[in-house]
Description:
The complex is a heterotrimer.
Chain A: H1 18-41, H2 52-85, H3 103-130, E1 150-158, E2 161-166, E3 172-174, E4 178-180, E5 184-191, E6 196-200, E7 205-209, E8 215-219, E9 225-231, E10 243-249, H4 251-264, H5 266-271, E11 286-287
Parallel strand pairs in A: 1-5, 4-10
Antiparallel strand pairs in A: 1-2, 2-3, 5-8, 6-7, 6-9, 9-10
Helix pairs in contact in A: 1-2
Chain B: H1 3-30, E1 36-38, E2 40-41, E3 49-56, H2 60-63, E4 72-77, E5 80-82, E6 86-89, E7 94-101, E8 124-126, E9 129-131, E10 139-145, E11 150-155, E12 177-184, E13 189-194, E14 203-204, E15 218-223
Parallel strand pairs in B: 1-6, 3-7, 6-15
Antiparallel strand pairs in B: 2-3, 3-4, 4-5, 7-12, 8-9, 8-12, 10-11, 13-15
Chain C: H1 3-8, H2 18-22, H3 27-48, H4 63-81, H5 85-91, H6 116-144, H7 155-172, H8 178-189, H9 198-216, H10 234-237, H11 241-269, H12 282-314, H13 327-361, H14 368-381, H15 400-409, H16 411-425, H17 434-457, H18 459-465, H19 469-499, H20 505-531, H21 546-576
Amino acid sequence: MSSNPATSPAELAGEPNHARRFGLTWLIATVIATPLVIVLLGPILPPGKATEQAAGQVTDNTVLLGMATPVLLLVVIYLVYASIFFRQPKGGVLEGPAVRGDARIQTTWIVVTSLLVLSLAGYGTVRLLADNGAGSGSGPTPLTVPAGPKLPVQVIAQQWAFTYRYPTYGGVETPHLVLPVGKMIELHVTSLDVIHSFWAYQLGVKADANPQIDNIAFVKPTKVQSFEVRCAELCGLWHGEMFDHGRVVTEAEFETWIHEQQTRFAAATKSLPPYSTTYQPEPTRRGG
Amino acid sequence: MSLFAKKLLSVAATVTALGVLIGLYVADWATSYPKEITATSAPANSGGVNLTLEAVAAVGAKYSPQHPEWVSYLVRTGGRWVRSTDYIVPANSVVHVTIYQYDTPTGLRNPFLSQVQGTVGSTEVIDGKTVNSIPPEEASHTFAVPELGVFVPLPGASEEGKHPCEEAPCELNSDHRTISFSFRTGKKGRYRWQCFVPCGAGWYFGNGGPMQTLGYMDGFINVV
Amino acid sequence: MSTTAAAVSTPAPASRPLWRRLIGFNLLTAVLLGIGGYYLGWFIGHQIKGSSFHNQVPSSENDVALLLAYFFGVIGFLIGLGFANYPVSRMLGRPASLREKEQEGWGRYFGLCTDHKVVGIQYLIGIGVFFFIGGLNAMLIRAELLHNTPTFVGPGQYISLVGMHGTMMMGMMTSGILGPFANYFVPIMIGARRMAFPRIEALTFWLLMAAGFILTSTIFFGGFPTGWTGYEPLNDQAVMGMDSYICFFALVGISMCLLGLNMMATIITMRAPGLTWSRLPIFVWSVFATSVLMVLAAPMLVATLLMAALDRTINTSFFITGGGGSSYLFENLFWFFGHPEVYILALPGFGIVLELLPVFTRKPLWGYRLAVSGMLGVSLMSFFVWQHHLFVSGINADLRPFYMLSTEIISIPTGFIFMCVMGTLWKARTSFTVPMLFCLGWTFNFLIGGLSGVFLSDTPSDTTTHGSFFVMAHFHYTIMGGLIFTFFAAIYYWIPKMTGLRFNERLAKLHFWLMFVAFNSTFLPLFVLGMKGQPRRVSEYAPNLHGLNVWVSISAFVLGFSMLIFLANAVYSLIFVRLKAEQNPWRSKSIEWQVPTPVPVNNFEQIPVFDSDPYEYGVPLTVGPGQTAPAGA
C-alpha cells in the first residue's frame, strides 16, 4: 500500500526521515521478495498440475500469494520498524506527537485497499467462470458448462465409502475411481445418507455430496497418475477413514479396465436401481 | 503466607484434586477401545487363523447394560462369546471367518455391496452353498474392511423362523445362517471394519447408534 | 497452617451459624434444585415416551427425556440462585429492591449479584475455567494426531472431542471479552453507575455456566459427532449426546442475545453528560458493534436448534430431505448465525487493541472515525457473506461471485483497523509492556488470519482449501490469534484495576513469548498440512503428513504449557505474593483509571461530565500540510 506518509510533517529536530526510510525498505523488500515467492513457491503450490482445473488453481494461488506478499511485508516491516525506532526510552515518560489522523493517508488507504479487493473479486469471478467452476461442486445446474463431449461419472457417497458409477457403460458401479486422460469428466456427486464431501486432492476437485442433490463438477485430467480421494465433510464415526485411491489412465487402458469391471460386477449391476442423478434408498427416515 | 492465601490455597487444592479426578475420567472415556481379541490359529493343514463371529439383533443387558437393544457382533474366544470388535490377525496370512447370523434381513442402502469382494475366490459360503452375491434386500449385515477391499454381504435369518434368538449369546439351535469366507491380510496396519447395512433400528437412515459406536457394528482389524 | 486460626478470623458475618447461611437462594440451593429439576424432566420424559411421541428409537435413547431434564435442570438452577424472586415478589405486589446481594465479602461472587463489577469477575473466572477445559480437549486431539491412525483416542471419542473443543470455544468465548471486561468497564467508561438491566446481566453469566456444564456432560451420553457446526442430517442420526450440544448452544444463544441487548441499552441510554458518540472510548464502540451482531444473529441460532431438537424428538422433518425438508436449510440457517458469530469473537479484540495502543504509545488514537466505521462496517457486512462457507456444497452456485465479492469487501473495513493501528504506532513513544506485546501479537496474527482468508474467499482457490486444515489454521489465527491474544492483553492491562494487584512481569513476558512462538509454530504448519490435503476433523491421515503433524502436536503442547505459566503466574502473583499494583500503573487517561481501586459499589460519587475522548495523549505539533489536528477524516 502506499509506501508512505508522503506528508511527513514537521520532523523533530535531528530525526531521520522515517517515512522515506520505511517506504524504501518496504519497496526494496517487495521488489525482491514478490518475484522470489512467485518463482520459488508458485510451482509447489497445491494441488499440482494433474488436471486443467488443478493447474488453474495453482495459477490462482500464485496470483493471490503474489498480491498478499507486499501487504504482509508492509505490515510486518512496519511493526518491526516501529518497534525499533519508535520506542519509549527506558524509564522515560515522553509523549508522542498528538496526531489524530491524516485525511490524505486515510483516503489513499481506503482507495488502494478497495481497488485491490475489487480486482481480486473480479479476477476470482473470471477464473471461476472461465474454468467451469474450477473443479468445485457447482450444483445441479452449473453456470458454465464446457463445450464438447463429456464423460459422466457418478460419485456415490455413503457412510463410509465412495463408490463410482459410469452411466455410459451400462451403469456399472465400481469401488475405485479410474478416469481416462485428456477427456472432460462430468462428476455427479450425491449421497445416500448424510452430507459428505468428495475431495480428489490431486485432481483439484471438491464437491459436497448432499442427500437428494446432484452436485456437478467438471474436471479434465491432463496427466496419467494416481490420486487420493478423501471425505472433506464430517460425516460420523469413520469420517477420517473414508478415503480411497483412484487412477488417471490412458484412454485404451480405461476401455480395458471398464470392460473388466462390467464383467466382474455383472451380478451387482443387475441388482442396482436404474441410473439416476439422485437415489433415495430405504429407510428414508428412522428405520433399520 | 497470609491467612487469605492459606484459605485460597486449600480451595485451590480441592479444586485441583477434583479437576484431576474429572480429567482422569475424561481421559479414560476418550481412550477406551473394545478389548483386543486375538484370532485363534487354524488347524495346521488349512494355515492362517480362524475368526468366529456372530451377529445378534439385540445384544442384551448382560453384554451391554447401557444399550441392551442395540444390534451387535460378538466374537468367540476361549470357548465364550465376547462383545468386542477389535481383532488381532497376523500379517500376510489367510483369515478364515465364520459368522453365525441370527439377525433378520434389512436390505442394503447401496445394492452394489450385495456382491462379494476381496475374499479368496471372491465368494462366500452360505449354509454350505458357494455364492458370489446375494439379493440386496436379503442382506442383514455386511462384514467389510474397505482398505483391504473386503466386502462380504451377510444374508439375514428367515423372518418366519420358529426359533428366533431371544437373547445373546445366541446358540445354534436358534434360527440362523452360517456364512464362511477367507481373506488375505497384507502388510501390518490397523484397518477399520464396519457393517454397511442400515441395521441401527430407529436411527436416521438406520445408521446411528450401534452403527457409529465401536464395539457393536464397527471395529478394527489389527494386522500385526 | 492452623485451621483454628482460619476459623476464628473468618470475616464473614459470624452472627449466623453456618447451616443457617446455607439455607436461602445461593449456589448450593441452585445446584440442588438443578439436580432435582434434571430428574423431574427425566421422569416426565420417560412418561411421555411410548405414547404419541414414540419414535422407534430404542428406549435406552430418549431425547425427549434428556432435553426436558436439561430444561427443568436449568430452570431449577436459576430459581435456586434467586432469579425468580424479583418477578414473583413484584407479581405479588410486594416491593423489591433494585439490586440484590451487593453485600461485602466473598459470598457475592458465588451467587446472583447485580453489581456489574462482581459479574465481570465471575465471568472472568467462569469463562477461564471452560476455556481451560476446551484447551485440554485440544491437547487430547493433538495427542491422538501424533499417530496417523486411531491409536490413543477412539475414533468416535475423537470427533466428540473435536466437537466439544470447537463448541466450547465458539460458544463460551463469544462472551470472552464482553463478559468480563465489557460488563466491568463499559458502565465505568460511559460514566454510569450500573448496567441498564443488572438482573439480566447476572442472568447471562449463570446461563452460560449452566450451558458449559451441560456441554461437558455430553460424554455421559455418548458425545456428539458433528463438530461445532452440528450439520444435519448427521445431527439427527446422533446419540443423545447431541442433545447436550443443542441445549448448550441454545442457552449460549439466549445468553448472547440478552448480553447484547443489555450492552446496547446501556451504551445508548446511560452515557454521562458530554460523552457524545464521537467521544466514546473505542472499546465501547467495539462492544456496541458486537452487541448488534449478538442481538441479530443469536436468535437465528436458537430457532435453528429448536428445529433440530424437534426433528430429533417428535419426528418433524425440517432438515430431512426424505420428509420434505432440506439439509441445505440447516447449513443456510446455521451460517447465517455462524458467520456473524466469528465477528462476535473478533470485534471485541479490535476494540481492546485500539483502546490499549494509545496508552502505551503515548499518542491519541489515530483515525478514530475510521476505526469506528471499520467496526460498524465489519458488523454490517458480516450478514452478507455466509454462503462462502458453502462454496463447494452445490447450493446457489450462481451466487458464488456475489459472495466472493462481499467476502472480499469485508476486508476493507478490517483494513481500516490495521490503518489505525499503524497510524497510532507512527512516531510513537512505545513502551513494550505485556499488554502492548499482546496487542502487537494480535496485529501479526490477525494479519496472517486475514491474508489466508483471501485464499478461502476466492472460490477457485477455496476448492482445495475448503474443509481442510487450511481453514482450521485460518480461523485459529483470527480467533485464537485475534480474540485470545487480546483477551490476555485485557487481563494484563485491567487486572490492576479489577483487583488492585498485578502480575509478575518476568513470568508474564515469558508467557507472552512462549505463547506467541508456540502459537505460530502450531498453526503456520497447519496451512501447509491443509494445502497438502489433510481434511479437518480426521483421526486418520495420509502417512506422508506424519512428520509435520508430530511437529504441530509438540508445538501445541508447548502452547498448552504457556497457559500453565499464566496460571502459575496468576496463583503466584495474585494469591501468594499479592503484588500490589499502583493506582494507575499505565498512566492511562481513561476514566476507569481515575476512580479509586477497588471501585466503589456505585462507581462514582457524582456522575462525571466528559469534555473529550480518553485519548488526550501526546504533545501537539505544528500542523503540517495534509494534517488535521482534531479527529481526522
